């Protein structure tokens, strides 16, 4: 990487450096800061008026249901991340180490397709597959297993989260592991490491950065998604995104919705920063 | 050394293919044939279904207009949409009756001339001076249709007798099979009626409000989920939910027509009425066109269309409309009990005092009710 | 590396199962789009194309599809441009505040869409109120919002490609007498072409299916996902399955084309 510490950037450098600064400041930083300001506004006669009051904060943060929802959301998003990472790993392992280059490329391209299809429509398909008179229960019925309630439970929510995150996690894990220097793995095997030990002590540490990034993305997506817990989980229990929407349904209460949104953002920043710090920390034995 | 040879033949092929495909696509869009006549576009803000072909196509053909609908989900959503657009964006606004006051207070709607509309042909005297539609002797909204909310149930689990009281929601067999429409207002209104508050269901003092909360909380273990429109339909149709709280014939009617064993009745404690009304957006440049359409919807032909709306049914509010419905579609008239003398005739129910118009809470704020709703969901 | 055949077989089955899980909803959606019943249940009704007829005859859906295309193409161009600028700046330069600079472009994905949607809506409404221009409810407000959301992906893709470039290539070009601008035009951009194309596709894809922000920010000019959401919130109709199938088949075609394009370029690259 040709990095010249510039004394003063010339026009050329500025042309490339400035656009993003302006664009993001106006259209990203602006809205976020405005939202923070909005959390202090008041709603009078169904119109939002500028103010600087803490009532929205005190009201929301003293509500039991807010904290119930908060911890539940963190919990289910963590569960979703663990599930996605574990479910994706064998597939990513197979694609990275056992598949040919072109198979791998086709697989990745195929996994990108769900991004092009409507997430909503896919969620609704699950209704028919998972309902008590649906496909899965019908098939289980043939084998004599009783109808299981899968919708409107945590299981339904998790299925929704998997629909959202699994393709991305598989892709990220595959790309990360495919980029590991194969010689290191060969060396480990030659030195007598069993396959499992190779995975645990060589492959995973080497792909640590990519794996943590995949986990962070998965957590963020699950944390902020409202479709899965609402449609497949029946809002049993409501997560923070559902709470945001609910709050906006009660008389234009955007400021209170902003409070919930800010709490979500702060939590996510904290988790993302911790994760990234872990990802890029030099662990022992990593090369 | 890397030479940036774009494989021009491959790229050229792609370009040609793309052009061919693109041209074909443009020619097959149904627009080209119809669009370039001078049709007037009318922007409509409404619940889903009001701008669909089954309701407006005939009018559009006859009057050379085109409705551009923007659908909202909930009164607050509607207000937000108006707030964020320049005045005059929406020519026609369909809203729930209890939101008309807010629309007017915020200056979103135009005054209407009462003489233009069939106010003397109403099926019930309340309709001509519906609460909230008038302010200072001026009319701001025209009532279009209504629907009743009560006990919605699956006939396989709940008998018609049991459904005569909200108490059936607490049946032990229904544990985990009672669904809620995800809006606090109708459900809490029903709980209030169940507690015996009758006509004062929205006007609760502290004790009554505490009692309503307690009653509602006791239902929690029966609840299988909280659903929006789509989820409600799916739940009832698939049988996951055997009873629903907070809805009425407007949902079960559609399912019934599709053959599902569901029904809605007004229980003895009383039911709630939702009412939909048309207003003209303030600053609209097509106010005359909007007025013409509202008059059409109030005419017998329009009232029939409204009653038969594919998205969700509602009952006619004019006598001429009802007569036209009975003539044009006896089956639907029978199904929705819109026949004079029928014991479940919506108008009869209103006259008997068993129906209460939906309204916002009087002594608590919407926030209070919504907070409790969130608490209920988290329980 | 010794490969156990039975393990490979199991892994193969596992991968197939994963793909089955990912594609099952899509396949079912396609099946239901041909189902005559309005509310799909098992067993299925008859084969029917009425939902497709309904979708194709609805000018609102065509308009929304057109809007979706306009939005995703515009977003792709803007996001790729922003991503390229940032990736190149990151690649070539070290400067103070580089950390915050990168954070500026990489932070948006960490904020859940629903929050971005809320913030965008409020902000654009306020800008509109200040400037008296109707900023929300227009397609360009969606384009702006989407470009903010997708620029990080563009940047990541292009940055990865730049990593593969020989760092001395640029200096070599300068030494041969090229200016910075000429080098950019004749060396860097051609080298990044595959990444630029990938980025265009990727950002277009993300923008195409995005519904949370679009729903909040769009007024009368809906995009296709917003139409789907409206239909689903006010109706229940296999129309959405028909729309979903169209989108799926279109994207399948695009992806296959991109894959063929990319594959042939790789071969050309090896040959030259």
TrEMBL record, chain A:
This is Spermidine/putrescine transport system permease protein. InterPro entries: MetI-like (IPR000515), MetI-like_sf (IPR035906). CDD domains: TM_PBP2. It holds the Pfam family BPD_transp_1. Residues 70-275 form the ABC transmembrane type-1 domain. It is found in: Cell membrane. The chain crosses the membrane at residues 21-43, 70-96, 108-129, 158-180, 211-232, 257-280. PANTHER family: INNER MEMBRANE ABC TRANSPORTER PERMEASE PROTEIN YDCU-RELATED, INNER MEMBRANE ABC TRANSPORTER PERMEASE PROTEIN YDCU-RELATED-RELATED. The lineage of its organism: Bacteria, Pseudomonadati, Pseudomonadota, Alphaproteobacteria, Rhodobacterales.
Automatic annotation (TrEMBL), chain B:
InterPro entries: SBP (IPR006059), Sperm_putr-bd (IPR001188), TAT_signal (IPR006311). GO terms for cellular component: periplasmic space. Pfam families: SBP_bac_8. One of its GO terms (biological process) is polyamine transport. Keywords: Periplasm, Signal, Transport. One of its GO terms (molecular function) is polyamine binding. It is found in: Periplasm. It comes from the Bacteria. Its main location: periplasm. This is Spermidine/putrescine transport system substrate-binding protein.
